[in-house]
UniProtKB/TrEMBL annotation:
InterPro entries: FAD-dep_OxRdtase (IPR006076), FAD/NAD-bd_sf (IPR036188), tRNA_S-uridine_synth_MnmC_C (IPR017610)
Protein keywords: Cytoplasm, FAD, Flavoprotein, Methyltransferase, Multifunctional enzyme, Oxidoreductase, S-adenosyl-L-methionine, Transferase, tRNA processing
Keyword check for Cytoplasm: yes
Coiled-coil residue spans: none
Taxonomic lineage: Bacteria, Pseudomonadati, Pseudomonadota, Betaproteobacteria, Burkholderiales
A Pfam family annotated for this UniProt entry: DAO
UniProt name for this protein: tRNA U-34 5-methylaminomethyl-2-thiouridine biosynthesis protein
Amino acid sequence: MDLLPYWRDRERFVVFDADWGDGAAFSAWVEAWRGDPRRPARLHVIAIARGELPGFRRMLPPLQRDPAITLDLLHAPVEAALAQLEARFDAVHLHGLNNAGSGFARALARLLAKNAVLHADRLSAQQTAALAATGWVFDGAQSARYASRKPFAPIAPAPQRRAIVLGAGLAGAAACQRLCARGWDVTLVERHPQAAMEASGNLAGITMPLLSKDDNIASRLSRAAYLFALDYWHRLGGVGEAIEGARCGVLLVAKDAAHAGLQRAIAGARTLPPWYAEWFDSEAAAARYGTLAPHGAWLFPQGGWIRPASACQAMLDACGPGLERRFGVGSVGLERSGDEWRVVDAAGAIIAQAPTVIVANGAGASQLAQAAFLPLTRVRGQVTHLDADASDLPPNLGLVLCREAYLTPAFGGVRSAGASYDDDDDPALRMSSQQQNLDKLRSMLGNPAIGIDAPLRGRVGVRSVAPDRLPLVGALPDPAFPIGAERLRELPRQGGLYALLGYASRGLTWAPLAAELLAARLEGEPLPLETGLADALDPGRFQLRRRRGQSRPA
């Protein structure tokens, strides 16, 4: 399919390919894009692919090559994928649809831009008729133009690409990088003198996906975020190279025979590729890991640990000249001024001003009047630092060990264990939380002698946790909740104010994809997630739940 006559001088051009195959069509379009001086500023290709794991997967190019090209691979049947997609197609390449029926035509029509073009190969007469019924006018058997008279939604004006990001932890640094990659000018505002001094300041954070027997929303979101993060950290220079850490694998140990039975049921419910997750029953686990996993264990071979501050630094370094950093500003507030927001310090002086503000300061969001209504809980987490050479610890297998607690491989002479979940935000280390961590570690490792005389060493951070343990990604709703709203799109929002919050203890997994999702929304791009999953992260979801609860008859 030759796209050159259609994409020239466009700001963005979106192509849908019904069959990724070996990627040959994508490669050809990329080469044509590179060679065309009148190419669109951004090329976005969305393709149906046969994958081992279901769901949408966004692929980003290396930073130094073609940053204006984005590829989404949709691992789902064509009709189901189109039904969960938010995009506008300028061109459509239909092939490989021999067994697809014709129901996809209606789902496709919902996603078409005005005057979209189509190239078809080996469509059945029924499929061609279904496409014609939705507004395609064919010129021969293989090409068509979309000529429907339906009202098209007006094209949103290009955003003013100026934003303020509050918070220089994982959430804020990822937001800066994904916006700067799209040409935005971003001012990063941080109350501390440097990045990653709150919850993102721990020596080690763990990366691994969640699993469930029914592949629920949390598991699907976790899978999408985890896979995107694996690619993203590699794109920024690699874990163990530009980013301190190791993709050493995570061993999630079954607690007892009953827990092992639940994990076996998950393993039996679906076939997971071993590069993603592999279940070892008690015999196999004992043969491979000895006494560390007597009841069985999951191995996540691509998981591992990362020092969050090094990830933050890599993201901020990748922003280039579009980023302005304002550190050490102390506590701040937000004020609306015409069509823009002002960030002001404790004395009322203006620190920064822009039409868009992204609240990404974790537990600190509760101090902002515009975000204080969000149902986020501040949860204290204390990590215990243990001497890497302690004789009571198991040998360093190079894996992260997990159950109720985790134990990392050695880094800088320290192995990190934790972290506690405490219902307060006391920043001081305390012995009770240390004992909580050590008790969990003793139980996991079956060694009551671990850390008996361990000195009180570690770090305290405060997490931001939502009631459903999912992040908040998107436009902040107006706290003056309207009684009549029943859908997310009906909720009034605080114009220009967005959230990246509630990552709990999984910031290294959530931060990259959450920032990508928000940046795509701000730009009016195709979303990197199924609409149902994106909606599950909307900050307005709690207002709707409260409204629905109030509307039930007594």
